[in-house]
Specification:
The chain has helices spanning 3-6, 15-30, 60-90, 111-118, 131-156, 170-209, 287-298; strands at 275-276, 283-284, 301-304, 309-312. The chain is mostly helical and 316 residues long. Among the domains are: 11-20 and 128-151; 264-315, no CATH class. A two-stranded antiparallel sheet has the order 1-2. Strands 3-4 form a two-stranded antiparallel sheet. It is elongated, with a radius of gyration of 60 Å. InterPro entries: Vps72/YL1_C, YL1_N.
Length: 316
């Protein structure tokens, strides 16, 4: 739908055209516009008699039928136009509810009004008697009255101004700050618990992802059994020799030596392992051991319990 169809009709729509029509009608009534009998350009020539060929000559019966059909068609068109006009007149115009809210009281005619009417000129201004022009004028008056009523209603029902909130005192501000701090601490505690649970879930997931290598494991279990004999408490005795010079007579030379840790051995080659496999979590020595550990992680080797060795799963 276009914007022109949505907007409301203007109050002065059709005024210029109506004014021009009224002026032309007034000129015609006054006799200013009259046709000239001596105008040669508009002289109508006599109708020449038509010569009809014998092949195209119509009979009297055909002419009568054509005239009857034409009269029927004209009557049908006239009836259709009358029905359309009746439907237009039968339509009821909707009057808004608030049209009667702002009604002006009629003033009683006074002496001044009668004198004013008597002074009016004898000639009257001619108005258009067309029903459409009268209807449009009434509609424009109704729209104007409706706008005035709506403006009056909006002016009366304006929103009241909100009352300004009173400023809080120092004690009220402190109390509000305490409540806010309490809520923030509760939220912080909830977030910390959620973060701890998330870390635990991540650790459990990473532990499950690590591949497992199945191999024989020997477990030694021991338990303390009382023999019934009394326990003997042993105490270590230390001797200190202050008069002996450690430089010439070293008593404990091992105390100043660095501890030498045995390096872990590679389970594949038996050599000292200098690397650590991140997935299998087993130390290895060289590239060959790394490849073997990768194959074990992928499940390409099987352990033979009878022989106590690892072998290829393809030989099974």
């Amino acid at each position: 739908m276009s914007a022109t169809a949505k907007r409301s009709r203007r109050a002065n729509a059709g005024n210029k055209l109506r004014t021009m029509v009224e002026e032309e009608q007034a000129k015609l009534d006054s006799g200013e516009i009259a046709g000239s009998d001596e105008d040669e350009d508009f002289v109508k020539k006599g109708d020449e008699e038509d010569v009809v060929d014998s092949d195209f000559e119509e009979t009297d019966s055909e002419v009568e039928h054509a005239a009857a059909d034409a009269s029927k068609l004209a009557e049908a068109l006239i009836a259709k136009a009358e029905r359309r006009q009746k439907r237009k007149l039968a339509k009821k115009r909707i009057v808004p509810r608030f049209a009667s809210l702002k009604t002006k009281a009629k003033k009683e005619p006074s002496d001044s009004d009668s004198t004013r009417k008597s002074k009016a000129p004898e000639f009257a201004v001619r108005f258009s008697s067309r029903s459409s022009a009268v209807r449009k004028a009434k509609e424009s008056d109704m729209l104007k009255h409706e706008r005035e009523v709506m403006a009056d209603i909006k002016r009366r029902h304006k929103k009241p101004k909100k009352a300004e909130e009173a400023a809080l005192t120092q004690e009220e501000l402190l109390e509000e700050a305490k409540q806010t701090e309490k809520l923030n601490m509760e939220k912080l505690k909830e977030f910390q618990e959620m973060a701890a649970e998330e870390k635990m879930r991540q650790r459990a997931a990473s532990a499950r992802k690590a591949p497992l290598i199945i191999q024989p494991v020997v477990h030694w279990k021991s338990a303390a059994v009382s023999s019934g004999e009394p326990l003997v408490r042993e105490v270590k005795t230390e001797y200190s020799l202050d008069e002996i010079d450690d430089k010439h007579y070293p008593v404990n030379p091992w105390s100043r030596r660095m501890l030498i840790k045995d390096p872990p051995l590679c389970p594949v080659t038996g050599l000292p392992a200098r690397y650590f496999h991140p997935r299998v979590r087993v130390p290895y020595a060289n590239a060959r051991a790394y490849r073997v550990l990768e194959e074990l992680a992928r499940g390409e080797h099987a352990y033979f319990y009878d022989l106590g060795v690892w072998g290829s799963s393809a030989s099974l």
